[in-house]
């Protein structure tokens, strides 16, 4: 049976290691996510972010250490029931059939990619889907088919699909992948809006681009080489010093109007004069 909460924790990883094919991927990873908190999982390619997200989604088990998701310890719970309480947004959604937007969202009710044969949603389920489509600005797209949607429209559809089962934990796996600047900003506005429409949901967003962090991000964990570089409140973690350490390259981080940006640190010119701009640094 899944407990309602573990104290006020939606997720806890304690001294977690993962080994595959004789290679250790995670080394003593520890952090915990509180109910209603919005975490960013940051790090370079190959750092272990996807492995951690698999643990958070109850898709894989640790080699050692403890993972508790929504109060349930992996290895001691029926996984199918636990997964129904976790929403997962993956822009690489493997849909092949030309389902409509409404039908794609309904697959979140059944926990499938395609709609099951002979399955019919209840009037209450249909009403909930339409409420989500309205909240995400998709009412006018409800009957459009998946292949005709823009990447931004697909992203919002997948968020609605993740929310339709009323999850308590939302995982967003690089949701801005493939989006242009305008579509990215629209998607981030949608994610920011969840803090108001679904304040009880805890979330983890995976990215390696600071510009893709929503302004509602409350906490962050920086990963490098399978180890935690820093974890905690976002303002204390996402700094020039920590990002430089995680990405092993001198990076200057700026936080302005609730959003982050990053650029390579420029070496000072030997004879820099008063007209030379100082690099921005938050660390």
UniProtKB/TrEMBL annotation:
Keyword terms: ATP-binding, Nucleotide-binding
GO molecular function annotation: ATP binding
Chain ranges passing through the membrane: none
Nucleotide-binding as UniProt keyword: yes
Protein's organism: Pseudonocardia hispaniensis
Protein name, entry field: ABC transporter ATP-binding protein
Domain of life: Bacteria
Domain ABC transporter: 11-250
Keyword Manganese appears in the UniProt entry: no
InterPro entries registered for this protein in UniProt: AAA+_ATPase (IPR003593), ABC_transporter-like_ATP-bd (IPR003439), P-loop_NTPase (IPR027417)
